[in-house]
Design brief:
The protein is of the alpha/beta class. The chain has two domains: about 220 residues, FAD/NAD(P)-binding domain (3-Layer(bba) Sandwich); about 110 residues, D-Amino Acid Oxidase, Chain A, domain 2 (2-Layer Sandwich), CATH 3.30.9.30. It has 13 helices and 17 strands. The strands form four sheets. A seven-stranded mixed sheet has the order 5-4-13-14-15-12-16, with helices on both faces. A five-stranded parallel sheet has the order 7-2-1-11-17, covered by helices on one side. Strands 8-9-10 form a three-stranded antiparallel sheet, with no helix packed on it. A hairpin with a 4-residue loop joins strand 9 and strand 10. The chain binds flavin-adenine dinucleotide (FAD). The site of flavin-adenine dinucleotide (FAD) has 31 residues, from helix 1, strand 3, helix 10 and helix 11.
């Protein structure tokens, strides 16, 4: 393979950065075009668990697995399932017994992961402040990229690692990200570890899912001692804007949110009472389950751009990184770049399709009657499998 072919990666998320790292290690010179102006422009969000057979596999290919293992949080794997009475139906690992986890899906804060990947990539390859507006396919299979800052580039291969609302996806597919039927309101309890020990005791050091009445409180301890909570609702797309909640005033918003969980245990309502950090409304979007496209020369997609799914199976970042490793290895191991990309796509469609179907099933389960009981059974079987593997 000619290592001087011009490869453009759009987006410096976990997928784009992993791809760049592996290709650079093999002597290629990919360029990453990122819309944000710097690594610190935007808070990168919550904690992620990276699975052995997905995110960690990609980190191994990228030569970063040992570094990851030094900074990840094994105790973050703990999981508690509660109903609205705050009764724990299932507990996996706990603050008293953190070693009861299998170590196969340790947590890392998204910002920490991004910094680890950024440090591993040649900084000159990252073009910050390059927001792609659109691309056009040229007759010879190359692509012309048009950026908001006026720059245009012509490249041999463009990889859309530009997330949920990819600007490259329309060149290969008619599908668009659709509202999943689930909306979330994210609230944050800053410094919970020091200020709200009762909350930490209830939540544990990992995730705590409280499910009832087709609603969910999905809480996760972050590495900085903050508890991030996604209050989740199965609601029409316009609900986040017509529910009367003033997101600009935390006190007022909390009063309205408490009404939505009126008959829930006071212990769980403390997730809302104690919230003292930013609040964000979030609609959850997804691509159709099993999204795929006809191969087209000179362009491909990975991660959310290729198979956006809801976060209910914790698979998005894992898959983005796995895609990156699969695509990079395919490019490295083939003489013909087009054949390499096509083979990656066929493999990725299969595993990502399976995962998007599982994710959709999980999302539906979270909002069914008796959701806590059903998710408990699911997690019990999952954890049993993990323990057998360990
Ligand atoms: C609430 C929530 C919780 C989640 N929890 C988990 C979890 O526990 N585990 C898990 O594995 N996944 C989780 N996910 C999913 C995960 O965040 C995504 O699947 C993952 O970040 C996708 O990575 P990516 O590299 O494909 O895209 P992204 O992380 O979205 O990165 C895309 C990058 O492209 C840039 N970009 C976008 N448009 C342009 C443009 N036009 N031009 C240039 N640059 C552009 C963006 O600025 C960004 O840096 C969660 C998602 C949500 C919403």
């Amino acid at each position: 393979m000619d290592k001087h072919k011009r490869i453009a990666i759009i987006g410096a998320g976990p997928g784009g950065l992993t791809l760049a790292r592996i290709l650079q290690q093999a002597g290629f010179h990919p360029e990453i075009f990122e819309g944000e102006t710097s690594a610190t422009q935007r808070e990168q969000g919550g904690t992620l668990d990276l699975a052995e057979d997905m995110g960690q596999t990609a980190l191994k290919v990228a030569g970063l697995l040992e570094q990851f293992k030094e900074i990840c949080r094994y105790e973050g794997e703990a999981l508690k399932i509660m109903d609205k009475t705050a009764t724990a139906l299932h507990e996996y690992g706990s603050s008293e017994n953190p070693e009861a986890v299998t170590d196969s899906r340790p947590e890392i804060d998204r910002t920490v992961l991004r910094h680890m990947l950024l440090d591993a990539v040649n900084p000159e390859a990252i073009k910050w402040g390059h927001k792609l507006l659109y691309a056009t396919s040229l007759e010879n299979g190359q692509h012309e990229l048009h950026f908001e800052n006026g720059v245009t580039e012509i490249v041999d291969l463009v990889v859309g690692a530009d997330g949920a609302f990819s600007k490259l996806r329309p060149l290969v597919s008619k599908e668009t990200a659709e509202y999943s039927g689930v909306s979330m309101i994210e609230i944050n309890i800053l410094d919970a570890k020091n200020q709200f020990p009762d909350m930490v005791e209830l939540n544990g050091l990992g995730s705590a899912f409280s499910l009832d009445d087709s609603k969910a409180m999905l809480a996760q301890m972050n590495g900085d001692g903050k508890i991030r909570v996604y209050l989740s609702f199965k609601v029409p797309v316009e609900w986040l804007h017509n529910n009367g909640i003033n997101y600009d005033n935390l006190g007022e918003a909390k009063t309205e949110l408490l009404k939505l969980f009126e008959d829930w245990s006071p212990k769980l309502k403390n997730y809302i009472h104690y919230a003292n950090g930013p609040i964000f409304p979030r609609r959850i979007y997804m691509l159709p389950v099993g999204h795929k496209w006809e191969h087209k020369k000179g362009i491909t997609l990975l991660g959310d751009a290729a198979h956006l799914m809801s976060p209910f199976a914790g698979a998005g970042a894992n898959l983005a990184m796995l895609d990156a490793a699969e695509l990079a290895l395919s490019i490295i191991n083939h003489d013909d770049i087009d054949e390499a990309v096509h083979k990656y796509e066929l493999k990725m469609f299969k595993y990502a399709g399976e995962m998007s179907s599982i994710t959709k099933k999980y999302m539906d389960l979270f909002f069914e009657t008796n959701a806590a009981e059903k998710i408990k059974e699911l997690m019990k079987s999952f954890h049993k499998e993990e323990n057998q593997k360990a």
